[in-house]
Write a structure and sequence with these properties.
Layout lengths: L9 H7 L3 H27 L4 H13 L3 H11 L1 H19 L5 H24 L2 H30 L7 H57 L2
Length: 224
């Protein structure tokens, strides 16, 4: 039909969608860029090898009391998880060398050191996730705004005296639907990526907690 984009002509569809569609596409681009950035950062935080295998290795070395080998394993693994565990192991050696500290105080000191190291690493892992989470809601609301403006144009075409302007009516509905689709697409991708990254961070945090608990338990059991 006259005034309508040809099938497959997405640039024309964007043009027909009104001024809100480029804003929505900008949001979609932000989601994609921040998702790629988070993927690399979180992958780097996990380290060079499998996190679960690494934690099991550390637990095995702690069971035999081989702290030096555990520290060397952390150096080999690298990443946020290894950094936190290495910090706990260093504290383990410090309290072990201090003869004036009792077992309970030493265990608390190791646990506190691991918690502080975790608190330092977490902001780096969670950076930009707030933006992705915000775009989930903002994308939907912006798409809804575009839908409303398109429907206003459609009803404006119906309100003309005499026969309604069918081209203007169709253009208004088209604008509304293009905005709705773009808003839903943006929000859907944002929420999927947000959930993927929060799940990955939760797994890393669990691994840190598991290894940290092993360090504290090993100290308590070997220094009775």
């Amino acid at each position: 039909p006259e005034g309508h984009p040809l099938p497959g002509n997405y640039q024309a569809m964007v043009y027909k969608g009104g001024f809100i569609v480029p804003i929505l596409l900008g949001m979609l681009l932000m989601v994609v860029v921040f998702s790629i950035e988070r993927f690399f950062v979180i992958s780097k935080a996990a380290g060079t090898g499998n996190v679960e295998t690494f934690v099991k290795k550390i637990q095995g070395l702690l069971t035999t009391g081989n702290i030096e080998a555990a520290v060397a394993e952390c150096d080999k693994q690298k990443g946020s998880v290894a950094n936190v565990i290495k910090s706990g192991l260093k504290k383990y050696r410090e309290v072990e060398a201090d003869s004036n500290i009792d077992i309970e105080q030493a265990s608390l000191a190791i646990q506190k050191d691991i918690e502080e190291a975790t608190a330092l690493e977490m902001p780096m892992l969670e950076q930009n996730l707030t933006i992705i989470a915000t775009l989930v809601s903002v994308g939907t609301l912006t798409g809804l705004l575009g839908t409303v403006t398109g429907m206003i144009k459609s009803f404006g075409a119906l309100a003309t005296s005499g026969a309604p302007d069918q081209a203007a009516l169709a253009n208004g509905i088209s604008e509304a639907l293009i905005n709705t689709a773009t808003g839903i697409l943006t929000s859907t991708i944002a929420i999927i990526m947000y959930n993927i990254f929060t799940s990955k961070i939760d797994k890393l945090t669990y691994s840190i907690d598991e290894a940290g608990f092993s360090i504290v338990q090993t100290y308590a059991s070997t220094h009775k």
